[in-house]
């Protein structure tokens, strides 16, 4: 069964997968079965069933993808955690997972270098002017100022 869109985006030595988190029950159950006891506890801590299921599917997909890249079983993966809690694998590959609502992105480097990916829903952002002023360079603020009002949230997230 194919659970994910193929690694359609190859950014040099980084592959990115898009994962739909709303899965048929049998697929969600399979992906949940790949989780460690700690990941299961984390999933069960979510208040809403949809959040529990999305977390489990995202983490199961991450395990399946990493295991495939390493030619090992998903359950044998043992994640370590950095000083800020970010998971990693000793010896690589570098990876990152981001999810928002019913979509996840998983990036995997072919070596142990750090990699990042982010997915966000484009939406109006009330604090946009104060965020721009506080955190963005003048050139970035100029980029945002050139965007039409309707495109400013997308331009912000692009930066």
End-to-end separation in angstroms reads 36 Å
The residue-averaged pLDDT reads 89
How would the global form be characterised?
Answer: globular
Parts with pLDDT < 50 across at least 5 consecutive residues = none
Your description of this structure?
Helix 1 (25-33) crosses helix 3 (49-70). By secondary structure, the protein is α+β, with helices and mostly antiparallel strands. Strand 1 and strand 2 (14-20) form a beta hairpin. The longest helix has 22 residues, at 49-70. The protein is 40% helix and 16% strand. The termini are far apart. It is globular. It contains 6 helices and 6 strands; from the N terminus they run ββαααββββααα. The protein has helices at 25-33, 37-44, 49-70, 128-135, 138-146, 152-158, and strands spanning 9-10, 14-20, 80-81, 87-88, 95-100, 103-109. A 4-stranded antiparallel β-sheet has the order 1-2-6-5, with helices on one face. The protein has a two-stranded antiparallel sheet with strand order 3-4.
């Amino acid at each position: 069964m194919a659970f994910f869109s193929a690694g359609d985006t190859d950014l040099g030595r980084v592959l990115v997968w898009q994962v739909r988190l709303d899965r048929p029950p049998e697929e969600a159950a399979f992906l949940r079965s790949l989780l460690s006891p700690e990941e299961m506890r984390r999933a069960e801590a979510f208040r809403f069933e949809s959040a529990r299921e999305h977390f489990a599917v995202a983490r199961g997909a991450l395990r399946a993808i990493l295991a495939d890249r390493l030619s090992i079983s998903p359950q044998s993966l043992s994640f370590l955690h950095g000083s800020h809690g970010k998971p990693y694998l000793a010896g690589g590959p570098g990876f990152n997972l981001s999810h928002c609502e019913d979509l996840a992105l998983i990036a995997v480097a072919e070596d142990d270098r750090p990699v990042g990916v982010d997915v966000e829903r484009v939406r109006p952002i009330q604090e946009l002017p104060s965020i721009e002023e506080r955190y963005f360079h003048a050139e970035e603020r100029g980029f945002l100022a050139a965007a039409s009002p309707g495109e400013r949230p997308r331009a912000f997230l692009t930066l």
